[in-house]
Amino acid sequence: MDAGGARVIVAGAFAGAFSFMEHNPGFLATKALDQVELSAAALGIALALALPLGIVLGHFHRGATIAIGASIVGRALPSLVLIGVFLTVLGIGFRNNMVALAVLGTGPILTNSYEGVDGVDRDAVEAARGMGMTHLQILRRIELPLALPLLFTGLRVAAVTVVATAPVAAVAGGGGLGDIIVNEASYRLSGVLAASFCVMALSVAVFLALIALQIAVTPRALRNTRLTETLSSGKEQL
What we know:
Blueprint: H1 3-23, H2 25-59, H3 64-76, H4 79-90, H5 94-118, H6 122-130, H7 135-165, H8 178-181, H9 184-217, H10 220-237
């Protein structure tokens, strides 16, 4: 097949994908909401477990091995392997995939929360301690505000990773847009591409929403400098 024929096939596939989206908006929206529900549940578990642990370890400057190890394990374990492991314990369905995706999201959150708090300027911390602040006051007033960029970087990486990986869960009854992507026989290439575009759109939407949230919660005194850093790191991640 020459280059011209290949371009025609690619153009036809993209046109078919947009046609599928035009004729099946409700179906795609339902599947997307299923995926958002699964991803949100998994991310909630990852946050509940990893964020407090990373902050505490970073505050006391302990556990670097744990934080780095969690990041390495999270990146090294394929999602399908995790789903297969939990399949034997939790069975097919929402819970199995939720736990597997939660494990996937734990690494970036734990590592970045640790590094963010641990990397706060020691002079600022010592000055606050000299003013009589308690550990909790130092953490709340000094360390957390200064660590926000890295905390949100970990959250963004985890959220985008979970949302983009969630379609894999369809092989174990996880539902969502993955049901379309893994079932080309029923939905044809146009449906697979349309669902893939929806996954990409969801990932970008989550990324932008978290940037907006970071700007909203960043103290006004730090907002201008942090905004530039956030947008720069955002370009690198995309």
